[in-house]
């Protein structure tokens, strides 16, 4: 028996049947039948019921088939922040049998051109504020049709909508597409678990991003795996989840947008989570039971006036992912909300959930927890050999949620897999003697100081404990004596803190070779749209 299975609560099955649905659209239909009149999504005070989502997405799917000439397997890009249009467009794309290409609306022209060209996209559904970026590069792509989402669409509160760039041809408003689709018939599409549902482009932390091919079967499996593992902490049709991480990101896409829809939850969408003051106001009226986020988001809320005074009595589950949750942030979160911050772990390539850390109440061990049902994890050395429990190596995973491969990149796909079929995550981890997994760091972010491995996460987590510091990011720099040395970029709240103060603080708990040699104070640490620290930009 795998060492981690002893940490499963008694009533949680080690395996689930992931073959019970042929497609995500079957799951949609079942959820709508069960929760018809319940609120599915809320944004800026406007609401869509489960029936509304079904009806509007049917209209949009019919429009895509008849007016946009979308056939099964065609790639359709969706480039919008969290609005009510996102789930409607998503279910419409899936019901038409197309493949959704999730695009970050904050992308630069270069990043957008790469993704649209790589995925061979002819139709894009785009948030109006992102249109100037598209206008710059549309001529370099195969895009023929542009469907424009405005902030006020489906909300009707008179929110401002920018004018559409005159250089763009063949544009249609999303609301017009819905109205046209209402008069058209939706042709049923035969979809199986093997068919692609999403092209999820990886963060591209190592260069150009690659499209992870996620099938209907991959996502169905991950929803059912979560449903089984979390069944002690949710009530069908009763949950209220706040979705502030972007729905185009795999974490919010699967966990919030899809899982919690299937479980009958009300999903409160936050369009601009960077406006923390407005975010706190949304939370004030939410009665949230579930919140998912990333370390920087939790940290940001904790530093926002008014957050600590909110009523957290309905809150019962908080999950952190996307990047390591720092212990200092987790401790403060529990102190303020009364609810533990549970870490999860996964990647775009794994749909994303591989492990979760909750449900084991007899003993809580910080870290990424245990693999969810049907998931095997193996810690390997650089030669692909399995390492004994307690030793650090690359985390490799196998399960029904692992992608079908990288889009049109057979070599990259082959390089990402072990000979015996495990996906290589590129993360360094270990399995402790109690049967819990811990991420040590990203393989490629590791710093080599005089032959010793130094993991940035460890340094950043230590600095996070220092009073007067908001956050930090750590990189390796060339050093004549030690090969590489540790350099940290620090954002401080207390203006009196000096570089020497940071070094002295680190020296209390870090061994000599891990102590930063250089400390630079900056106003803000560069982050991805999901809040991951962009160490490459600091380099």
Quick tags:
15 helices, 3 domains, Rossmann fold, GMP Synthetase, Chain A, domain 3, alpha/beta, single chain, 539 residues, 9-stranded mixed sheet, 7-stranded mixed sheet, 28% helix
Describe what you observe in this structure.
This protein is an alpha/beta fold and 539 residues long. It has three domains: 3-17 and 214-442, Rossmann fold (3-Layer(aba) Sandwich), CATH 3.40.50.12780; 24-191, 3-Layer(aba) Sandwich (Rossmann fold); 446-538, 2-Layer Sandwich (GMP Synthetase, Chain A, domain 3), CATH 3.30.300.30. Helices cover 28% and strands 24% of the residues. It is built from 15 helices and 25 strands. The chain has helices spanning 24-35, 50-66, 85-95, 109-119, 131-137, 174-182, 216-229, 250-262, 276-284, 295-302, 327-337, 410-415, 456-463, 499-509, 535-538, and strands at residues 39-43, 46-49, 75-79, 99-102, 123-127, 145-149, 171-173, 196-201, 211-215, 240-243, 266-269, 290-293, 317-320, 341-346, 353-356, 370-371, 376-380, 393-398, 423-431, 437-442, 447-449, 452-454, 469-479, 483-492, 518-521. A nine-stranded mixed sheet has the order 2-1-11-10-12-13-14-15-16. It has a seven-stranded mixed sheet with strand order 7-6-5-3-4-8-9. Helix 10 packs across helix 11 (327-337). The chain is globular, with a radius of gyration of 23 Å. The model has no long low-confidence stretch (mean pLDDT 94).
